[in-house]
Predict the 3D structure of the following.
Amino acid sequence: MGLRRSDYENYDYQDFWKDEKRLYEDMSERIALRKMLAPLQDRSGVFADIGCGYGRLFTEYRDFKTILLVDYSMKNLRTAKKNIKKYLGAGQMQGSSIHFIAADASRLPFRSDIIDVLLTVRMVHHLSDPRFYFDQVQRVLKDGGTYILEFANKRNTKNILRSMVGRMDTSPFNLTPSRIGDTIQNYHPSYILGMLTERNFNLKWILSVSNFRLPLLKKILPLKTILVLEDIYQRFLSSLSLGPSLFLKTNLEKKSSVQEQGDEIGNILACPKCCKSCLIIHDDRVTCRTCKVDYSIDEGIFDFKQ
């Protein structure tokens, strides 16, 4: 039985992060992401945030030339567009190459070999079987492209301790995903790494994140102190892979080279149904010349869900 799809149309995901209790988790993820993005000096390519939510992490990759914000929820994307417009200013937003796209992660509406850097944070735990999504990442990422992935780690310190005292139904050490409620699955690091290796992703860096996600610590220590400890842990103890969240930085190695495409949105998009790139973009819709399917454009947001 697969996971039930998370319903972000009837839930304000931004509210989840407004509570200061999650400020530590937000900052921990930003610390990790900044470390992984810092070596990427060339920001002239195409950056895609798959499962972008309400655009929470946009400020960390805002300086890429072309940015694709992708989410299944139109509500999330509308909020993301509003937040980014407010952050950049209406004038700068109007002339930017920032695009908002509603799509299923297992059917990304992009041409093959078109994206330079792809990010996925807090999304994979919603997938019943990540293999189909990783197939898509492999397809759309350029040869040598960077893939940064965050996933919920089944083999974390808390789960190991719970298992030792008999308070966990499944072992944190086997590769079987651990189900949390109806919409979330935690994965063993070897499970995820195995799937990425099969698809020619080479691991460059792993960071253990949110390592001090304990209510008691948040009560007795100032946030600045916890973040200092977090930064130290990420730098020196990440190889243990014991945090509740793991960030992986990988590079894709493809077998064949492809011709460079332009980075305008018309050169990036492809029909998710037939995978053909012969799309006609109108003011209010996108039409595929091959399969004749129409996809709507709602308030500037491409909606490729069918």
Observations:
- The two ends are 22 Å apart (CA to CA).
- Residues 23-37 form the longest helix (15 residues).
- The mean pLDDT is 93.
- DSSP finds eleven helices and 13 strands in the chain.
